[in-house]
Amino acid sequence: MWYAFDSTDSVHLQRLLDAVRADDADFLEQHSISKLEKSNAVILNYRQAAAPNPVSSLARGLVVDRLSAAIWSMPFRRFANYGESHAHPVDFANSDILEKLDGSMLSVSFPTRNPAAPIWHTRRMLSLTDIGFLSKGFDGEEFRLLEQARTFLQRIRFRPEHTNYTWTFEFLHKLRPVITRYTAEELGLVLIGARQLDTLAEASEDQLDALAGEIGVRRPRRWPALPDREAIRELLQAFPDDFEGVIVRDRQTGFRVKVKSPRYLAMHHLLGKLSGKSLLTVWLAGESSEVIAYYPEAAERLALIANRFAALRDSLWERTQFWTMGMSDRKALAQRLERDSAPPVERAASFVTIGRPEAIARDALTRFLRSWPIDRLCDALQLPEEW
Q: Name one GO molecular function term (predicted).
């Protein structure tokens, strides 16, 4: 079974592709989408820290031709945790339950329709340009993710009839576990999605099982439907603390939601400490709604962080106005800041805002503050070590 691409999504996707063709940076900015140029292609990706919207949800490592915006590769859309406001509705009793693997998403497609000439990519890297890019594992060891993936891709039996698909895998890699530790036998590529590029229809889980058999790859573990989230949480209790959780996929609609193990989530976000630093890290990563879905008691603290951050940015904006009002020349600004012994943070912020309209300047200050080391930002926001 294949799930047809929704007509409303088609409209949003067309607007996005039109913006790429027109090089409309404002449209991408308004919809919180980043564009990474990769030779003759671009990768479009939602911004993690921004609130989801119908356009950005389609840009989850979407690869298109740089000039024509023809789609080269389109993984499945962004989906949320059950309980988040933007999560799709799912019928638990008529759903497939699959293990949520803890690796790196890797998609494969064939722009030339040659089964011997695939491209593969993450949400930020493309094999055409980034095959030698060095990543760093959590133990500090460097490795080339896309090059390592090629070793496993070469074992897959792609045929001409498979070149009309975007194939999406979870790449389990020994040097880059997030929390879950896998055995050597479990490492490699596990098929988690497939999309027809001519119709944009998405494969059901039964269809994915059949496709996995054709190309000779593994699939995630799968369980029979359960009636509700509480039943799923009982299922999760049977697994180790580092088991991430499950994906619940509605058999009728194809919609997905995540249900994560609270124990895994606590390990991932260091929530056991409930420190200002750990919650600030959550907020900066744009994962507040995910944490609140599992830990409602964190909502008030995360809201406090958001309010203090906004107040700090606004205060900094007001202070920079003292230095930059009526000025447009950066050299003259530097002389004034030096002459009047401006505090270092106000000096740096003034160069961020000079000559910019207020709305753009405030956005620039937001990025400026987000770039601070986490300990410095914690101190500036006066967040407690223990909360």
A: ligase activity
Residues of the chain by 3-state class (helix, strand, coil), percent to 5: 40, 20, 40
Express each pLDDT in 258-317 by its tens digit: 988 766 666 655 555 567 888 898 888 888 887 787 777 788 889 999 999 999 999 999
Q: Where are the domains of the chain?
A: 2-73, 92-223, 297-381
Q: CB atoms < 10 A from the CB of 263, how many? A: 18
Alpha-helical (H) ranges within the chain are 7-21, 25-30, 127-130, 145-153, 205-215, 229-236, 262-269, 276-284, 288-294, 299-324, 330-339, 344-353, 358-370, 374-381
Report the candidate in 108, 56, 104, 111 with the shortest Cα–Cα distance to residue 80: 56
> Which positions of the chain have pLDDT values less than 70?
136-140, 175-180, 241, 262-274, 385-387
Q: By CB neighbour count within 10 A (0-12 exposed, 13-18 middle, 19+ buried), where does 239 fall?
A: middle
> DSSP letter at 102?
-
CATH fold, domain 92-223, is D-amino Acid Aminotransferase; Chain A, domain 1 (3.30.470)
Q: How far apart are CA 80 and CA 292, in angstroms?
A: 12
Nearest-angstrom CA–CA distance, 375 and 355: 30
Hey, what long-range contacts does 340-344 have (CB within 8 A, 24 or more apart)?
none
So what's the pLDDT on residue 282?
83
Work out the angle at residue 72's Cα, subtended by the Cα atoms of residues 217 and 113, and round it to the nearest 5 degrees. Answer: 65
What would you report as the CA-atom Rg of the chain, rounded to the nearest whole angstrom? Answer: 23
pTM over 0.70: yes
Helices and strands, number each (H, E), in the chain: 14, 16
Question: By the 8 A CB rule, do 292 and 298 touch?
Answer: yes
Q: How far apart are CA 69 and CA 205, in angstroms?
A: 29
d(CA 165, CA 195): 5
